[in-house]
Design a protein that fits this description.
The protein contains 22 helices and 20 strands. By secondary structure, it is of the alpha+beta class.
Length: 711
Amino acid sequence: MNNKAILGKVLFYVYVVVLLLVFALSFIRIGIGKADKAKIGGFENDWGSEHGRTVSLGLLPFADVDEELILKKALPTHTDSDHVLNLVSHNIWFSVLFDDREVYSYYPGENLIGKGYGVDIHHISIPQGAKEVKLVCKSIYKGENSAYFKECAIADSADFEKMLLDKHMVAFLISMMIVLLGVVILIIHVCSFSISRTEYNMPALAILAILAGLWSMVSTEIPLILFHNLLMMRVIDYGALTLIGFPLVLFVNSVTYRKRAVFGYIQFAVCMGCELALVICRSVLGIDLHDVNYINLISTGVALCLVVIMIVEDIIVHMKHDTETINRALYLGAFAFVAGSVLDLFFYYSAGKSYSSRDYVFMEVGVFIFLILMYVQSQRRLLHEHRIVDQQKFVNGMLKHSFSGLSPEMTIDQMLKYLCDETGAGRAFVYEDRWSGVFERTHTWGGAKDAPELPTELPFEGVVSDAYDAFREKGTLTVSNQKTFAKEHPSLEPVFMVKGVETLVICPIERENGYIGLFGLENPPAGKIGWLASSARLIAFFIAVVLQTRDSQAELLRNSYVDHLTGVGNRRSLDEIHDKLSKGDVRYGMMMCDINGLKNVNDEHGHKAGDDMICDVASCLKDIFGDRRVFRMGGDEFLVVREGGNREQFENAVAEAWKKIESMGRSVSVGTAFSDEEADFEKMQRLADTRMYENKRVFYSRDGHDRRRGR
C-alpha cells in the first residue's frame, strides 16, 4: 500500500462519516423542520435595570448588585396566541413576572455535578393582555461573568428551537463528524482484527475522537433540544474533558519514534486521580465541581505537556540522526489543534468572556483536522511497519539465495531471478568493470522474448562515468518518466531505456576501494520504485559480496596453480597440460631449463638476489612462450611446453629464449625434446631432462666451474 492508497482509504472513511451524518441530519430535519426566521424576533437587548441602566441579557452587570438583578421590558403590543417567551440560560437562577405577577421560577436544586446546570432552555407562556415582563435574576456563582442569557425571543417554541438548531448547526455538524469518525475507526479496527504491534493506537484514536466530539457537542445545545437531558450534558462536559488525555497520550506515543510506556502510565494515573478527586470533592466534601474545574484542566494540561514532550523528542531524534520523519501529519495535526484553540481563546477574551455564539468552532475544526491527520499518520505508520516486515523478508530471501548456489555465478543468477520474482521487474542485469575501459554484461535474468538485447559492453567514458556521477549525487538512479530521464541523462537514456522499458532502477556495485560495476532492474512496478530505491544499496551489497567471493575463489584457485614467486605455472598446473597432451592429438615441444650458478649467488649475495635471478629467467621464458606454458618444477628448474608447429620452429623459440636470458646476464642449461621422438609425456620429460643435465655438464667442464659451488 502506498500513500495514494492511504489517501483513498481516508477519503472513503470520510465519505462514510459524511453519509452517516447526512442520514442523521435528515432524521433531525424531519422531526424538527427548518426555522422561519421572519417569525422570530430578538428580545435580548434594551432591558431596563432598577438602576436606570439599559443592559443586554447576554452581558449582565452582576458586579453592580449584591444579590438579585431586576430587569424589565415592555412586551410587544401584538403577539400571536401561540407565542411564548423563550430563554436560553447559562448558570443563572431567575423568576419571570408579567405585570408583577410571577408565572415562572427556575431555582433547581443541586445535582450530581453541583448547583450549576450550565445551559438550559425555557419556554414561558405569556398571559393574555400582559404589558410588561420582569426578570429577577441571581448568579449561581458569585464574582464570575458566567451568568447570562444566551438567547431570548418571543416566538413559537418550535420555531425558537429550529432557530437554535440552525444557529449552532455548523458546530454541531463538526462535533457529529468527530464522533462518527471515531465510531467508524473503531468499527474498522474491530472488523480488521489488526495484529500490528501498535494495534492499540487505533482504539485510542477512536475513543479520543468520540470523547472530543461529545465534549464539543455539549456546547451547541442541540443535544439538549433533541434529548432534553440536561444532567447527561453536564456529566459529559465534566467527565469527557478529564478522560480525553489518556487516549491522546496513548495514540501520540504509538506513532512517535520512542515509544515510552511510562508516558501512558503517567497519564492513566493522572486521569484516574483527577476522576477520583472529582468524586471525592462532590460526594464526600460536597464541593460544587464548578469550583474545582481546574482538576479537569490538570488532566488535560498534563496530557498536552506529554504530547509536546513526545513531539519535540521525536523531532530532535530525527534531526540528530539526520533521518526523514514520517510524522509530519502528527506535527500538522497538533498545529491545527493548537491554532484552533488559540483563535477561540482570542475571540473568547475579545468578546468579554462571552463567546456563546461561536461554540468553539475553531477548536472543533482543529480537533477534526487533528483526528483526520492522526488517522493518516497511523496508516502511514502501519505502512512503514509493513514495509519493514517486507524488507526483512526480502533480506532473508536474499541471504538464502546468497548461499544457495553451487557456484558464485549460479548464485548471482538465482539472486537476479529472486529480484525479478519478488519485485515484478521484467529483467535484471549486472555489468562489471573489466579494467580495460569497458564494462562487461556478466549476468542477465528475465526479459521478454521480443525484448531488445542489452549491450554486451559499455564504454566507461561517456556512459558509465556519467552513471557514476549520478550515483555520487543521488545514490540510486530511478526512472519513472522517460522524458525526464532523457533530459537529465542524455548519454544513459539510449543505452538503458531500450524499446519496452518504461521504468528503471540502477544502482552501483561497490567495494571499499570504489565502484566495481552496476546492476539494474527493468520495468519494476511504479508503486515499488520508491521501495527499490531505498533497498537498492542493500541489494548491491549482496551482489558485491557474491562477486567478492567469486573473485576470492578465483584468486585461491589461481594461486593453487601458479608459482607465487615467478607467476608461472606450478606442478599442479602441469598436470592439466599432461592430461591434455597425453592424448597424442597435438604435436608439441618440451624444454627443461636449469639456472646455472644460483647457489653461488645465494651464498655470496643472499637469497633476495637469488630470487631476482629466478624471476629474470621466468620473465624471459614467459615473454617467448607465454605464462600459461611455463612451469616451475623446483628451486631453479623450469619446464616449457610449446604446442603446435614443427621441431624447427620450436628450436628457434628455444634459441630466442636462451639468447634473451643471456642478454640479462643470466646463464641456463637447456634440454629439449619433441613429440616426434617420443609420444609419451613422462618419457619426453625424462629425455629433455637428460639432455639438460648433459648441457649443464658441458657448461661446467668447459668453463671450469666447480659444479658443487656453481649450481
